[in-house]
Amino acid sequence: MRKYWVLQRKSFSFLIDKKTTVSIIALTLAAVVAMLISIGVGDMYIAPWDVLQALMGTGLDINQLIITEFRLPRVLVAFIAGASLALSGAILQGIIRNPLSSPDMIGITGGAGFAAVAFLTMFSDDSNNLLLSINYLPLFAFGGATLVAFLIYALAWKDGVTPIRLILIGIGLMALLQALTTLMMLIGPIYRASQATIWLTGTVYGTSWKEVKALLPWFIGMLPILVLLVRRLNIQGFGDDLTKGAGISVHRERFLLLMVCTALAGSAVAFAGAMGFVGLIGPHIARRISGSSFGGLLPASALIGGIMVVLADLAGRTLFSPLEVPAGVFTAAIGAPYFIYLLFKNQ
Amino acid sequence: MLYGNKIKAAGLIVGLMVALIIMVLSVVLGYTNTSLKQAIEAYTAFNGSNEHLIIQLSRVPRSLVGMAVGISLGIAGVLMQALTRNPIASPDIFGVNAGAGFFIVFGVTFLGISSIQQFMWIGFLGAAVAAGLAYALGSAGQGGLTPVKLTLAGAVMAALFASLTQGMLVTNEKALDEVLFWLAGSVEGRKLSMLATVLPALVIAWFISLLLSRQLNAFALGEDVAISLGQKTVVFKLAAALMVIILAGGSVAIAGPISFIGIVVPHFARYLVGNDHRWIVPYSAIIGGIMLVMADIGARYIIMPEEAPVGVVTALIGTPFFIYIVRKGIFQK
Question: Does the model's pTM come out above 0.95?
Answer without folding.
Answer: no
